[in-house]
Specification:
The complex is a heterodimer of chains A (about 1000) and B (about 110).
Chain A (H helix, E strand, L loop, with lengths): L2 E2 L8 E10 L2 E7 L3 H7 L6 E2 L6 E2 L12 E4 L6 E5 L9 E5 L13 H4 L8 H7 L2 H15 L13 E14 L3 H10 L6 E4 L9 H4 L5 H17 L3 E4 L2 E7 L3 E8 L7 E14 L3 E3 L12 E3 H11 L1 E2 L4 E5 L5 H9 L7 E3 L7 H8 L4 E3 L1 E7 L6 E6 L8 E4 L2 E5 L2 E3 L2 H5 L4 E4 L4 E4 L14 E3 L9 H18 L33 H4 L3 E3 L4 E2 H9 L5 H8 L12 H12 L3 H4 L13 H5 L16 H6 L3 E5 L2 E6 L7 H14 L2 E4 L4 E6 L3 H8 L12 E7 L5 E11 L2 E6 L4 H14 L7 E4 L4 E7 L3 H6 L16 E6 L2 E6 L8 E7 L3 H12 L5 E2 L2 H11 L33 H4 L10 E8 L11 E4 L2 E12 L4 E9 L8 E5 L5 E7 L14
Parallel strand pairs in A: 2-8, 9-10, 9-14, 10-11, 14-28, 16-24, 18-19, 18-24, 19-20, 33-43
Antiparallel strand pairs in A: 1-17, 2-3, 4-5, 6-7, 6-8, 12-13, 13-14, 15-25, 21-22, 22-23, 26-27, 29-30, 31-32, 33-39, 34-37, 34-38, 35-36, 36-37, 39-42, 40-41, 41-42, 44-47, 44-49, 45-46, 45-48, 46-47, 48-49
Chain B lengths: L2 E4 L4 E4 L4 E5 L11 H9 L7 E7 L7 E7 L5 E6 L7 H10 L9
Antiparallel strand pairs in B: 1-2, 3-4, 4-5, 5-6
Classes of the chains: A alpha+beta (about 1000), B alpha+beta (about 110).
């Protein structure tokens, strides 16, 4: 049973109690507790169910490496799933819930997976795909879907405040342990900006906890002095509670700051740091020894047992055994023994050790057995006894020892993840049994320079004495390499020299474990990967480390294998009979630890996620009941329903008002690009397929742009403002694309041309006044003469309407007499209101984009993006007339001469009239002939003007099919038959456009 | 995230300010070219491992195109130069040679 000690705990304040709930139970902790330490203090040892077999699990560590204790924390809008209990500070009234069980932690229905675990071995999931086919759909998929996933997604909008912070620094020190502190001290006063990120809420790493009683005061003094120096130094900024989660190209670093001190929702920030040099001081992570039944609650990493005791005054159990292969782990049992805790036995996998710490332990009366390990653990939901066996052999139990806690230590693994994120290579240290950074193959920066240096335990230098010795030396070397102010930094070593015998690497014990035992030896706790699973993977041919990883999911859980990777690689090496350095390792990738999705979004959520582009007339549209349609980033009025109108009635009213009277359209979103300069005409001749340079000032011409492959790219009217200026109109969605396209050609291909390009889309707004009464309406403003003589079709004039400057184009996208009024955007709303007011007399109706599309489809005018899809040529559209034969060169010219673009079986634009005039074809439906699709519908409407269904489509060899009837399949059961006709359904002679 | 020098603004830019335009120094083939040359101009790209020459546009900045030489293995950048250059300038090639002794030079 775990419990709180009557005193002790460097992190907690016993004066302040904190109430919290765990699975509905009201519990108490102290201020400064983590959720994990508070749970242990309340004897909650069984806190989780494993992912696959739903086995009971307890806390295994005290840090970010925790594989088991993932919790759902908070409620409602502050709820977060999958949070490591070891990393969250306890807050008043915090709600903590365990995960991955139903209906409750103790009685979990899916723990039946554990009983049938032999059916759920590695690769079970993949095998369900294979046979029988129906079983996947009806049995496995529904079952797996129900069981899969870790934790529950929050059901409410996240109310947390997330921030992105940008920072530049000369040096970034990652980790504030002894190595990081020493590096910061050594680098100060050299004119550098130094940032130190520490994931914990204090700096200092482990040296205070690791010190012997007689050393403690000396180390404390050193610690306080160091903190004083860091605080005083203006060039050093220390960020606590900040975990570096990823290293990217050219010294770009992401760090996750979590300020947990407030009682309300915490502040979370994503730091985007650009660092010239990074110093990696991320220390090491203790790794377990894998032994049979090693996943029961009550089993914990040895240093974590000590952390809970020293930092939080919490005891894992009062009868603890240690299984180890190194001297360092003895610190745990010695500290426990000093507090009167019963240590029945220490099992040491080595043959012997001459380290004085062994003598010290023996002196305290601790029984030490060399060459022994754990062969079995008794207990269902909690360890209650261990069976001792020999490290060699199959694991025959020699002696059973009752206990309620087991500490395990298989040595320490340098924390090298960040070294690998951006190109650093690793070296296998066979003597110690871990990977460490390869100083010859470091991560590099923009100029190819080494931009990361690993120091301390993450570089394989473990003892405090050695760290204090090597860090100043390495920093001095760095300073001279970087040619920064290099005063030699010397520090007196305050740490005692330790005579530590190196760890004997052992990974899974006993060495000859029987098959039955291998099935109970867990390597990866979070994903339930056992020794037997890795052996199965090898047996089934997944011998490459990357394959074995994916087949077994080893190291793929949210802890990214922090405690399991090395053990897994070693078991793999033994199964393959190959040395570890020959099988390699999987790649560490960001993030080092999970970060919330909300943090990545930062403030760019809700309204700021993607700001809406609005026209100057948007307010009027909003007040007049507009239905919105997104067009690129714009929102445009799709239609303006009145009263109880149905949508069809609205569209019919809007279309007919243009055909009979006059309509008003907000077409401000139209792209407007000014091309100016002595060579503007020449440039545009190269861009458009037709001739632009011959256009006279004051006139307009419709133009088409293609890409080099000959496919239509954009279209629109070009107006020549004067000799050297052309205003090119583009589609609403294409404005930015076309502007970038023009710039690219001008800057990279035809940079000898004297041309200047400006995107004026937002400077001018545009209002279309369309319909037979449009001229009459506009002429009520006394100042303007719009007679056919004064302003012929495809011409424009500049004038004033009252005091408002306008440029009036006589162009038509509806086939009716029509004018488009360009106006400075700040006066667009005023002009719009004036036109509406005057228009009442002429029964003017504003119309939206859908009526616009119906009107143009009745005339057979194309819309780029509807009738074209990036594979359609002008010839396909029946627009040969717009491809110049005279021009020497333009974009796409070569492509038009290629045979496949002139083939008669290409899809061609046609009109489609359904035989049943009321049946509207579904958009995109296919025409079929002899069971083969021969084309599709590109635009389809019910035409209020013609009172029948109309459509445009691209059909193979369509022009020669005019008059014939085709079948359009709209489902496997239903077809609609339609006649192929010319794509111009209304006023084919064009008589209406002059009014 | 790459950090690249814009020769027009004369300052370092984060990758988020830039947009990559693929292989640099392509030769445009017009209507007078052979079908094979035209095909290569449209579709054949080197996509090499190691040193490449590529186009960038400082979209959220000056809006100008420029070229860089970059190593696709290490992301080392050897310098930026004007998009008007038809081949990499000598100074850039010299910079590459200084850190890649086996560099064979620019191939069209």
């Amino acid at each position: 049973m775990s419990s709180r000690l009557p005193q002790e705990g460097s992190r907690i304040n016993r004066e302040k109690t904190v109430d919290f709930r765990f699975n509905g139970k009201n519990l108490k902790g102290f201020y400064g507790d983590t959720v994990a330490s508070a749970l242990l203090a309340n004897n909650e040892m069984f806190v989780a169910r494993s992912f696959k077999y739903h086995r009971p699990r307890g806390l295994f560590s005290a840090g970010e490496e925790e594989p088991n204790a993932l919790m759902g924390i908070g409620e409602g809008p502050s709820f977060e799933p999958n949070i490591r209990a070891t990393e969250v500070k306890l807050r008043q009234n915090m709600n903590v819930a365990s995960q991955n069980h139903w209906p409750s932690l103790r009685f979990d229905f899916l723990s039946i997976n554990n009983v049938f675990s032999r059916f759920f071995a590695a690769g079970f999931y993949y095998k369900t795909f294979m046979w029988p086919r129906a079983a996947w759909k009806y049995l496995f998929e529904p079952m797996i879907r129900r069981a899969s996933g870790l934790g529950n997604a929050p059901s409410e909008y996240d109310e947390e405040y997330y921030e992105h912070i940008y920072h530049h620094t000369d040096v970034l020190i990652i980790g504030g342990g002894l190595a990081g502190i020493t590096a910061a001290k050594a680098l100060r006063d050299r004119g550098l900006s130094i940032m130190l990120c520490e994931k914990d809420c204090v700096i200092g790493g482990r040296y205070l906890e690791d010190s012997k009683i007689e050393e403690r005061d000396r180390y404390k003094k050193f610690h306080e002095k160091s903190i004083g120096i860091l605080k005083k130094s203006k060039d050093i900024s220390v960020k606590l509670n900040t975990t570096v989660t990823g290293i990217f190209d050219h010294g770009f670093v992401l760090a996750y700051e979590e300020n947990q001190h407030s009682n309300k929702a915490s502040k979370k920030a994503l730091w985007k740091i650009r660092a010239k040099t990074m110093i990696l001081c991320t220390g090491a992570i203790e790794r377990p020894i894998v032994f049979p039944d090693n996943d029961l609650p009550g089993i914990m990493l040895a240093a974590s047992v000590r952390d809970y005791m020293q930092k939080y005054g919490v005891l894992l159990g009062d009868r603890l055994v240690l299984t180890t292969n190194n001297d360092y782990a003895y610190k745990t049992v010695i500290e426990l023994k000093h507090r009167g805790i019963d240590i029945p036995v220490v099992l040491d996998a080595r043959d012997s050790s001459d380290n004085p710490i062994i003598k010290e332990a023996e002196g305290l009366g601790i029984r030490i057995l060399f060459g022994k390990c754990i062969g079995r653990v008794e207990g269902k939901r909690k360890a209650s006894a261990i069976g001792i066996c020999s490290v060699n052999g199959e694991g025959t139990i020699e002696e059973l020892i009752p206990c309620n806690a087991i500490a395990v230590s298989g040595g320490w693994t340098p924390n090298v993840n960040l070294w690998s994120h951006c190109g650093g290579k690793l070296l296998w240290d066979g003597e110690c049994g871990f990977y460490k950074p390869d100083p010859e193959n470091t991560p590099t920066g923009r100029e190819g320079e080494t931009n990361m240096l690993a120091l301390g335990a993450c570089a394989g230098v473990f003892s405090n004495y050695d760290i204090q010795d090597h860090v100043p030396r390495k920093i001095n070397q760095l300073a001279s390499r970087l040619k920064i102010k290099s005063k030699r930094y010397i520090e007196t070593n305050v740490f005692s020299k330790e005579s530590e015998k190196k760890t004997k690497p052992v990974f899974a014990l006993p060495h000859g474990a029987s098959k039955d035992k291998q099935k109970r030896m867990y390597i990866d706790f979070q994903n339930d990967v056992k020794v037997s699973d890795l052996q199965l993977a090898v047996q089934e041919g997944f011998e490459n480390v990357e394959h074995a990883k994916r087949y077994t999911t080893l190291g793929m859980a949210t802890d990214q294998g922090k405690t399991s990777n090395i053990n897994g690689i070693h078991v793999l090496s033994q199964s393959l009979g190959k040395p570890v350095d020959k099988i390699g390792h999987t790649t560490f990738r960001p993030p080092y630890k999970p970060i919330p999705l909300g943090l990545i979004a930062g403030q760019y959520a809700k309204k700021l996620f993607k700001p809406v582009r609005k026209t100057p007339i948007d307010k009027w549209n909003l007040l007049n009941n507009a239905i919105w349609e997104p067009v690129a980033d714009w929102r445009r009025a799709y239609a303006y329903p009145k009263g109880n109108e149905g949508l069809e009635e609205t569209l019919s009213r809007e279309v007919l008002s243009v055909r009979k009277n006059v309509g008003l359209l907000d077409s401000s979103t139209l792209g407007k690009i000014l091309v100016k300069g002595p060579d503007a005409g020449r440039f545009l001749d190269l861009i458009y397929t037709n001739m632009i340079s011959t256009l006279k000032a004051g006139k307009c011409r419709y133009g088409l742009m293609c890409n080099e492959a000959g496919f239509v790219f954009d279209d629109g009217v070009v107006a020549r403002l004067n000799d050297q200026s052309f205003l090119c109109h583009t589609t609403s969605g294409g404005a930015d694309r076309v502007y970038a396209w023009l710039e690219e050609w001008l800057q990279t291909e035809w940079h000898h041309l004297k041309v200047f390009i400006v995107n004026l889309t937002e400077q001018y707004s545009q209002i279309a006044v369309a319909g037979p009464k449009s001229r009459e309406l506009l002429q009520t403003f006394k100042s303007i003469d719009l007679s056919a003589e004064k302003l012929p079709f495809m011409n424009f004039i500049e004038t004033n309407i009252d005091d408002i400057w306008v440029r009036i184009y006589r162009i038509s996208f509806s086939g009716e007499l029509s004018y488009e009024l360009a106006v400075n955007s700040n006066q667009a709303e005023e002009l719009w209101n004036k036109l509406n007011k005057v228009g009442k007399k002429y029964k003017l109706q504003p119309y939206g984009t859908e009526a616009l599309h119906i009107l143009r489809a009745e005339k057979g005018f194309i819309v780029v993006g509807d009738e074209t899809d990036g594979t359609v040529t002008p010839h396909d559209l029946g627009m040969e007339w717009i491809v110049s034969k005279k021009k020497k060169d333009f974009i796409g010219k070569k492509a038009f001469s290629l045979p496949h673009l002139n083939s008669s079986i290409r899809k061609q634009l046609v009109g489609i009239l359904t035989l049943d005039t009321n049946k509207v074809l579904p958009d995109g439906c296919h025409a079929v002939e002899d069971g083969k699709a021969i084309g599709h519908v590109t635009s389809t409407y019910f035409s209020p003007t013609l009172k029948r269904s109309i459509a445009l489509g691209l059909i193979e060899n369509g022009r020669s099919r005019k008059g014939s009837t085709l079948e359009f399949e709209i489902s496997s059961k239903e077809s609609i038959f339609a006649k192929i006709v010319d794509p111009n359904f209304y006023d084919p002679e064009g008589a209406k456009q002059d009014g | 995230m790459l950090n690249i020098y814009c020769p027009i603004c004369q300052r370092d830019c984060d990758e988020t300010e830039l947009s990559c335009g693929g292989q640099a120094h392509l030769i445009r083939r017009d209507h007078a070219s052979s079908d094979k040359d035209f095909y290569e101009y449209l579709y054949e790209r080197k996509n090499g491992k190691g040193i490449i020459f590529e186009r960038w546009r400082h979209v959220y900045g000056c809006g100008k195109w420029f070229h860089t030489a970059r190593c696709t293995l290490t992301n080392q950048v050897f310098g930026s130069y004007s998009a008007k250059e038809v081949q990499p300038p000598k100074s850039i090639l010299a910079t590459i040679r200084r850190s890649r002794v086996d560099f064979k030079g620019w191939v069209k």
